[in-house]
Amino acid sequence: MAKTDSSGLPPIAKKRLQPYIERGITNGVFTDASPVVNLWNNKVKDAGLKETIDQLGGMGSEVAQQFLTDVVLTDLTAILRQKAITAHVEVWECNHRTVGVGGTNPRQVCFIFGQTVVDDGESELEPALFRMGLWDDDASIADNVEADGTYRISISCKALNADVLDLRPLGGLTQFTDEEYEHSNRAELLLETFDSTPIAELEDDVSRGFNDYRLVKGTVSFAGVQNSKAGNQFGKMLLKDDSTMTMDAIESGENLLLNCMTSVDIAQRFGKYSQVVALVTTKINGEYGLSANMETCVGTVVVAPPIAEAQTGGDDDDDDAADYFSDDDDIPLITNDSDDDTEEVEEVEEVEEVVTEEADDEEADFNALPVVMLKQLCKAAGIKPIPKTKAELVAALEGGSDDEEVSEEATEEVTEEATADSDSDDSDDWDDWD
C-alpha cells in the first residue's frame, strides 16, 4: 500500500495534483482536497485497474503511483473544464434501481427528482424543478440521500432555463452535503412551471419524450403496490378529475381514469380521496390507448393510506383497478368500455373475487359486475348485437329469452377466464427513464 501524508495522497500524487486542487477550489468546484482524495481512492479500488497496478509493482511502487496519478488527472482535467455550479436541492423522489438484470450488463442507477435553487457564482437563480440520473459508480453518490432531504451539491447543467433542469455530476467529485435551506411550496412550484391538463384531454397531446411532462390535478381513486413476475415491485395509481366525472360519462357508462405506473414510495404515500398534483409523461399503446408514468406527485389534501394496503376499487365496482391495468408494461390511460366491440376478453392483472347474491330465480346481480364482464356474459348467452353501455348490457341480461338465460355458472366461468390472466409486468417504464 502506498504511504500517504495528512492529505491522504502519496507524495508523488500530491505534488502533481495540488495545482489542480487549488484551481478547483478557486473556481468553486470543490471546497477542499477531499473530493480529489476520494477520486484517488476510488481509482485504487477500481477492479478494472487492479491487474495493471499489480503488473506495475502494486500501490507501493512509485511507477504504479505515477500511473494512477495520470488516471486521476485524466478525469480531473475533464471535470475542471466544465462550468461547475452550486445547487441547493430539496429531494422529492430518490429511487435506486438495477436495470438490465436479465441481460449481460446490469447497471446500478439512482433517479432523483426535486426542486433546486442554483447559484451560478454571481447570484441565486429562481427556484426550479430538477432531475438527476446517476449511473454505475456515480449511483453510490446518493447512497445516503433521502426523500425530503435538503443538500448542497456541485454539479454541471447545460440549460439553466429549462422547465426541469438536467443536473449532471462532476465525475467522482460531486457530493451531497446536508444543509438547512428554505425551499418553495412544492405544489405551487409545479403549478407555476406547468399548465395543468384535464385528464380527458391528455390523449390529444401525448408526451414526445421522457422529459416532455404533463401536469394533472386530480383525486386519488386507487393507489397500491403490485409485484411483477420478475420479482420487482412497482406502484399503480388511478386519478380522476372534473373532466372524467361528467354527466355524459355517467349516462354512457364510460369510465375515464388516469392510470399511472409509479414508484412504490409514491403509491404508498396517498390514501383514497387524496387530492394531488402529479407530473406525468404519456405515450400511446395501440391496444390499450394511452399510458402514463408518474414522475412525482404532491398532495394538496392528503388522506392517510390504510396501514394494510389492499388492492380495492375506486368509487364503485366499475373502478376496480384490475379492469384498467393490462398484462403489458403499458397501462391504459383512458378506458372507454362503450367503444370495445372486440370478441376477446380484455387482459387484466388481477380480478377480485366476484360475489353474486342469489335472487329467487338464481340470477346474477349484474349491476355489481364491471362492463368488461357483462359483455362476456352477453357473448356467453348468445345475445347479439352486444350492447355498448352498462345500462343496456344489464337490461339485455336481465330480459333475455329462456334459451339465452345467464346463470351464476356462466358468471363464474367468465370470472375464472379473466382471473387466469395474471400480472406480467416483466419490466416497467421506470427502467426506461433514461
Describe the structure.
This protein is of the alpha+beta class and 434 residues long. The protein has four domains: 71 residues, no CATH class; 100 residues, Nucleic acid-binding proteins (OB fold (Dihydrolipoamide Acetyltransferase, E2P)), CATH 2.40.50; 157 residues, Nucleic acid-binding proteins (OB fold (Dihydrolipoamide Acetyltransferase, E2P)); 54 residues. The C terminus is likely disordered.
Question: Secondary-structure blueprint of this entry?
Answer:
Elements: H1 11-26, H2 34-44, H3 47-55, H4 62-81, E1 85-99, E2 107-119, E3 128-135, E4 150-156, E5 164-166, E6 168-169, E7 177-178, H5 186-193, E8 214-227, E9 233-240, H6 247-252, E10 258-262, H7 264-267, E11 275-285, E12 289-301, H8 371-381, H9 390-398, H10 408-419
Parallel strand pairs: 3-5, 10-12
Antiparallel strand pairs: 1-2, 1-4, 2-3, 4-6, 4-7, 8-9, 8-11, 9-10, 11-12
Q: Tally the helices: what do you get?
A: 10
- Give me the strand/helix succession: HHHHEEEEEEEHEEHEHEEHHH
The structure class reads: alpha+beta
| CATH fold description of the largest domain | OB fold (Dihydrolipoamide Acetyltransferase, E2P)
* Overall pLDDT metric: 77
Largest sheet: 7 strands, mixed
Unreliable stretches covering 5 or more consecutive residues: 316-364, 401-434
This entry's quaternary arrangement is single chain
> Care to count the β-strands?
12
